[in-house]
Design brief:
This protein is 38% helix and 22% strand. It is an alpha/beta fold.
């Protein structure tokens, strides 16, 4: 069977499809369209002419908004077809070609982003290469990359467990790339995020059931990802929302109201206003903060895991544990972050000109109380020694 392809919105996957079709000599048209492209961009007459000339038309990731010749093949893996193989893999099947390793990586990236890449055991180099290819295909400029850096350097804004990022343009791929690479390197789960762009566009990446709910709520939006509709999956959603992006924020507030984050503090000291304000900035205004004083015993990871289970039994999801203790204990907790599924954080205190922590009072047992400065996340603890 002779095929003639009509290509949709440009990204790394669509670029790879064009490369493969060129390599095997299969005819295609590529109008260099953006995301959300429609079949009408090529038009019924042009597609019908292909059929009249003895070819089977194949439209790739194009919304069907016009009449198509009988027998037209529609290739897609977004929206209601998100459970199907990536479009690249569907195309390779049509033309009878086995996927290369790069094809597998490109397909995994398009279907599942970083979780998809992890599922096919992509190396850090493969992850970096395919994400760079995706951003290049989307035409992200140096200036737009700089705007992404500026937006992520701004004070952190959270809505429950969703990071809110505000920036001028809507080329959002670099936002997710930076957040994901940072999280993977630190052994954390990839955070959910919502980008509010100055051009009116809104983009979400995170929990699959939330992405599907957004898609159903806002007409004319787009959604996809292998985890679409799944509470334990990852998916994306996007839309141009007028007159106000506040509608999306309000919808999410209602949707995640019962999924607010919990921070567990393992300490005998009560929570003061400065620490509460700092945790709210990072984890959201409605963060639930629980203070418990436990003994770590011989297995600090098991002790903290039991504490997390106890706290979550009362509702909510523990996102971080504030731990105080000797370095061997903290080291074990940092090594056990993947098993615990939380961030390990600790408070830091202001220091005076002499380098000593600033004392602001005494507790009931006469121990010094220090002036709080900020929280930090423990990502790695190392000891370096030398023989005397």
């Amino acid at each position: 069977m002779k095929y003639h392809f009509f290509l949709g919105g440009r990204d790394a996957e669509m670029v790879r499809i064009a490369e493969v079709l060129t390599e095997v000599g299969v005819s295609f048209l590529d109008a260099a369209l953006g995301w959300g492209a429609k079949a009408s961009a090529y038009g019924t007459p042009q597609i019908s002419e292909t059929a009249a000339n003895g070819f089977t038309p194949v439209i790739v990731e194009l919304e069907v908004d016009c009449d198509l010749p009988e027998g037209t093949v529609v290739v897609d893996h977004h929206g209601d077809r998100s459970s199907e193989p990536a479009s690249l893999l569907q195309v390779l099947t049509l033309i009878g070609r086995e996927p290369s390793r790069w094809d597998v990586v490109v397909a995994a990236n398009d279907s599942g982003w970083f979780p998809g890449l992890q599922a096919v055991s992509a190396t850090p180099e493969e992850m970096s290469a395919v994400r760079a290819a995706d951003r290049a295909a989307q035409g992200i400029t140096t200036e737009q990359e700089q705007e992404i850096d500026r937006a992520l350097a701004a004070p952190v804004e959270m809505l429950a467990n969703i990071r809110i990022v505000r920036m001028e343009h809507s080329k959002t791929g670099g936002v997710g790339d930076r957040l994901a690479i940072e999280a993977i390197a630190a052994g954390r789960s990839i955070p959910a995020y919502l980008v509010l762009s100055g051009d009116g566009e809104v983009n979400f990446s995170g929990q699959g059931d939330i992405a599907k709910a957004l898609h159903e709520e806002f007409s004319g939006s787009w959604a996809g990802g292998a985890g679409l509709g799944k509470a334990d999956g990852t998916a994306y959603w996007g839309a141009v929302v007028y007159p106000s992006q506040d509608e999306v924020l309000e919808f999410l507030r209602e949707r995640v109201a019962d999924k607010k984050k919990t921070v567990v503090r393992i300490t005998r000291h009560e929570l003061d206003g400065d620490r509460r304000a700092s945790l709210k900035v990072v984890y959201g205004d409605d963060v639930n903060i629980v203070t418990r004083d436990i003994t770590y015993g011989d297995d600090p990871v098991a002790a903290v895991k039991a504490l997390i289970t106890s706290v979550e039994a009362d509702g909510g999801k523990v996102a971080a544990v504030e731990a105080q203790g000797p370095f061997p204990v903290l080291s074990k907790l940092v090594e056990g972050r993947r098993e615990l599924g939380v961030a390990i954080i600790r408070a830091q205190f202001e220091r005076g000109p002499d380098g000593r922590q600033v004392v602001v009072g005494k507790d009931e047992k006469g121990r010094d109380l220090f002036r709080f400065s900020h929280y930090e996340e423990l990502e790695r603890i190392e000891f370096q020694t030398r023989r005397l």
